[in-house]
Amino acid sequence: MIRSNEHYAGLPGAYLFATVAARVRAHREQHPALPVISLGIGDVTRPLPPAVITALHTAVDEMASAASFKGYGPEQGYDFLREAIAAHDYRARGVQMDASDIFVSDGSKCDVANIQELFSLSCRVAVTDPVYPVYVDSNAMAGRAGRWTGDRWSDLIYLPCTEANDFVPDFPAAVPDIIYLCYPNNPTGTVLHRDALAAWVDYARRHGALIIYDAAYEAFIRDTEGDVPHSIFEIPGAEEVAVECRSFSKTAGFTGLRCAFTTIPAAVTIPGPDGARIRLQDMWKRRQSTKYNGCPYIVQRAAEAVYSPEGQEQVRATIAAYMANAARIRSGIEGMGLACYGGIHAPYIWVRTPDGMGSWEFFDLLLSRTSLVCTPGAGFGPSGEGYVRFTAFGSEADTTEALERLQELRL
Ligand code: MLT
Question: Which reaction does it catalyse (predicted)?
Fold first, then answer.
């Protein structure tokens, strides 16, 4: 008899951003007069850079002629893109990386959700708290998270990141096998400085753990001193104990186009069933070539154009515009007397709710009184309670209007 995967039955409610969207839809129906402004989900609003559009047109034309038409591509990505990534994202920053260590995909969300398949169900998983929910939910669906206890999973190791520890996770009492780190952080918008990241790499090396490092927001780092790493592979030794996920979504406006990559250096190995070490990139290749047919050719050409001199200049301008929003949101919120974090090297601003209000309560208050959407911190984990997240990805006009509506609330 067919039976459902029991781990799905144990999942609480819907995916965070789906829950938010449902509440916003209901509000829109009841209050159609005041247009909703969303600074909730981190979706980009500025158009693709012109260099990307040109590359897309050219690639589309190539598909129109038999001589240049492309069918199935290599599952791991075309060499032209893997080479461009290795050169610009790694070697230009002094990190040795081979193009063959780079695996192109249609999104970091899928990669960070899928990679847990490579590990035994007995592996202990640690996540920073608050956390991007995909790491948690994908492990819960697989049966690695234990039981949902109301605000957390029984078998996950939570690494609180709060004002008390300056949003830098401490090493846990129980040693994990897999550690998810995301920096610049979603949702808090905070960063890990070089020493703190080096300490985590050292910890992983000492304990035989693997770090899954989500660097989807690295392009937003404004640091000129070089103290905030763009890649975990800037830390010596990380190439044996870390995997890195990067994306064109937020960097270059690809949330609708879809292109990302996961870097798994050849030196990363984990023990197999008989104890002999297996190269993780071989397992990932095996998985991807079985379950995935690769990111579309035209999209990979578009991603390649991000690295052209014009592409780089255009992307920098877009990011600067979002970061100007971030600065305005920060100062507007601070001006209202609320504590806020992030928004300096990241497009997210993490705000303490007023008067100890719960984060869903504050979300509902903003939505009902001002038609403004944020993301409730509690949706990101137990340490997110008492906070909400605003994104800087809105348009300049929406950001201005959102700040005006917030002021009118007189919190
Ligand atoms: C977010 O709002 O956290 C992001 O949009 C989520 C994502 O990139 O999937």
Answer: (2S,6S)-2,6-diaminopimelate + 2-oxoglutarate = (S)-2,3,4,5-tetrahydrodipicolinate + L-glutamate + H2O + H(+)
Alpha carbon of 207 to ligand 1 centroid (Å)? 31
* In the chain, domain spans: 6-47+311-409, 54-308
Tell me the pLDDT band of 224, cut-offs 50, 70 and 90.
confident
Q: Please say if the pLDDT value at position 369 is more than 90.
A: yes
Per-residue pLDDT, 34? 87
- Tokens representing 143 are 């049966």
Range 279-305 average pLDDT:
97
User: pLDDT, tens digit, for every residue of 329-346?
Assistant: 999 999 999 999 999 999
**Residue with CA at minimum distance from ligand 1 atom 1:** 42
pTM, 2 dp: 0.96
Task: Give the mean pLDDT of 387-391.
Answer: 97
Pick the CATH number of 54-308 from 3.50.50.60, 1.10.260.40, 3.40.640.10, 3.40.50.300: 3.40.640.10
13 pLDDT band, cuts 50/70/90, is confident
In angstroms, the CA 212 to CA 202 distance is 14
88 vs 287: CA distance, rounded Å: 27
Distance of CA 288 from the midpoint of ligand 1 (Å)? 23
Residue 172, SS3? coil
Q: Which of 138, 185, 186 to mutate to test the pocket of ligand 1 (most atoms within 8 A of CB)?
A: 186
Q: Is 302 helix (H, G, I), strand (E, B) or coil?
A: helix
CB 392 within 8 A of CB 347: yes
The structural architecture, per CATH, of the domain 6-47+311-409 is Alpha-Beta Complex (3.90)
Distance 337 CA to ligand 1 centre (A): 27
Q: Whole-angstrom Cα distance, residue 400 to residue 405?
A: 9
H or E segment at 195? helix 194-207
Domains 6-47+311-409 and 54-308 agree in fold = no
Any residues with Cβ below 6 Å from ligand 1, and which? Answer: 41-43, 109, 132, 186
| C-alpha distances in Å from residue 146, one per residue of 120, 149, 173 | 14, 9, 18
